[in-house]
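Sharing a chain and its predicted structure for anyone who wants a worked example. Both blocks are below, sequence first, tokens second.
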Amino acid sequence: MKAVRFLAAARRELLAEVLHYNKVEVGLGVKFVRAFEQALAIAAQFPLAGSPGPAATRKVLLKDFPFSVYYLDECEELVVVAVAHHTRRPGYWVGRLK
């Protein structure tokens, strides 16, 4: 299993969505975190299992939530680039890769 590193913007996105879902319903933020952790565990263990995304990234979907985790598969680690909603502002995060 590869180590995982977050871009600061991706970590902020994750935390913002957890806070949002906790406001929607008590405990929903925890469910979001679990779905995120499950998706990330699959990506860390099987980096090529994610679907190809823009700019040489790959993505895995979160179960029961309309989000994808976009990541780069680097030699010894996965770099989480974005925790992106499926329909809000597509591709907004691509500029982070420059």
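Comments welcome. The first strand starts at residue 3 and ends at 6.
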